[in-house]
Design a protein that fits this description.
binds pyridoxal-5'-phosphate; seven-stranded mixed β-sheet; Aspartate Aminotransferase, domain 1; 2 domains; 389 residues; alpha/beta; Aspartate Aminotransferase, domain 2
């Protein structure tokens, strides 16, 4: 935490004016003294001073050597996939973010990239599909929406022995809670749309790596393909990151109380939150994270979509929306929202029950969120189809 606030405190002061806020360089090009003689910037797809501050910031926050900023989380993911060639294989977590699944399956498979999906909560599960063709191991930890935990160090050892790179989508944890590069990952990526920008007002993506050569390759693809983050959104993301440590503290505090409240409630069946000792990934999460994050999912004893929808209709602090990681609490019903296009049987296999509800705990007063949950659950019992006794 102190380490992170120190990095943020060292954001550059504008040398021209002393402005304490990073200037927004809204320019496409830079005037040159003579061909090739300039101040390090020639064209803003290649480099922009505002974006560069953000790129250096994420590199430092993740303890890497190079950072890159993209127009969305998926654009950052797309840039990593450009490292691959036809015939290469990926091993990915089976409850991967839906947009990543769509990009892998419907865009890259047609170029001859094969993806194996495994439950990475046990590292040995990757071994049967790990081969010389494996080029990337794609982890999310915690995952969405059932918050499974993968052991980054253990999987990193298997991956590196096979010559594969480990990519960690660190969106749910943020660098405040987890630093995958320090645990042996090669590439860390973020949907900056979520916790990093933090105010539900930006779409952006970030990468950080520690290896210089890998950084140069990714930088080449960023410039060649052009999916860069604009200066205004770069500035909003820097501004968001300035309060990231404080916000993460509040997200974690609120999620802890909400998870406890749910775990003790008679209408609630399962609670998915890595901070609970009964969570199967609790020990690994306690080792590789500094806290357990702001996300909590749960199922109802009456395991129906109707019961879940009746709960959602009652919440006031938790607003019904996709996305997560903003200052305002959000609630979602994956079965009818993010996972709607997945056949029911496949969805159930992935642990997304009919009544599963996902909460993104914001930074409101913890007692208000607790009261909102309790009140909404008490009103859920009036659901006409409820057989709960
Ligand atoms: C949202 C999200 C993404 C995609 O990011 P966008 O900014 O929406 O493109 C990738 N991974 C995870 C875990 C996410 O939550």
């Amino acid at each position: 935490m102190q380490e992170i606030t120190k990095i943020i405190q060292q954001l550059p002061i504008d040398p021209l004016t002393g402005a304490i806020s990073v200037p927004i360089y809204q320019t496409s090009t830079f005037v040159q003294e003579a061909p090739g003689v300039h101040k390090g910037f020639d064209y803003a797809r290649s480099n922009n001073p505002t974006r560069l501050v953000l790129e250096n910031l994420i590199a430092q926050l993740e303890n890497g050597s190079k950072g890159l900023a993209f127009a969305s989380g998926l654009a950052a993911i797309d840039c990593v996939l450009k490292l691959l060639q036809s015939g290469d294989e990926i091993i990915a977590v089976d409850d991967i973010y839906g947009g990543s699944y769509r990009l892998f399956t419907h865009v890259y498979e047609k170029f001859g990239v094969k993806v194996h999906y495994v439950d990475a909560s046990s590292p040995d599960n990757i071994l049967p599909v790990l081969s010389a063709k494996t080029k990337l191991i794609w982890l999310e930890t915690p995952t969405n929406p059932t918050l499974k935990i993968a052991d980054i160090s253990a999987i990193g050892r298997y991956a590196h022995a096979a010559g594969a790179l480990v990519v960690v989508d660190n969106t749910f944890a943020s660098p405040v809670l987890q630093k995958p590069l320090e645990l042996g990952a090669d590439i860390v990526l973020h949907s900056a749309t979520k916790y990093l920008a933090g105010h539900s007002d930006v779409i952006g993506g970030l990468l950080a790596v520690k290896d210089d050569e890998l950084g140069l390759k990714l930088k080449f693809f960023q410039n060649a393909c052009g999916n860069i983050l604009g200066p205004w959104d770069s500035w909003l993301t820097i501004r968001g990151i300035e309060t990231l440590p404080l916000r993460m503290e509040a997200h974690c505090r609120n999620a802890r109380l909400v998870a406890q409240t749910l775990a003790e409630h008679t209408l609630v069946d399962q609670v998915y939150y890595p901070g609970l000792p009964q969570h199967p990934g609790h020990d690994v999460a306690a080792r590789q994270q500094t806290d357990f994050g702001g996300m909590v999912s749960f199922t109802l004893k009456e395991n129906t979509e109707e019961a879940a929808l009746s709960f959602l209709a009652q919440t006031r602090f938790f607003k019904l929306a996709e996305s997560l990681g903003g200052v305002k609490s959000l609630v979602a019903h994956p079965a009818s929202m993010t996972h709607k296009s997945i056949p029911r049987e496949k969805r159930l296999q992935a642990g997304v029950q009919d009544s599963l509800i996902r909460l993104s705990c914001g930074i409101e007063a913890a007692q208000d969120l607790q009261a909102d949950i309790l009140k909404s659950l008490s009103q859920t019992t009036h659901c006409p189809t409820s057989p709960i006794l």
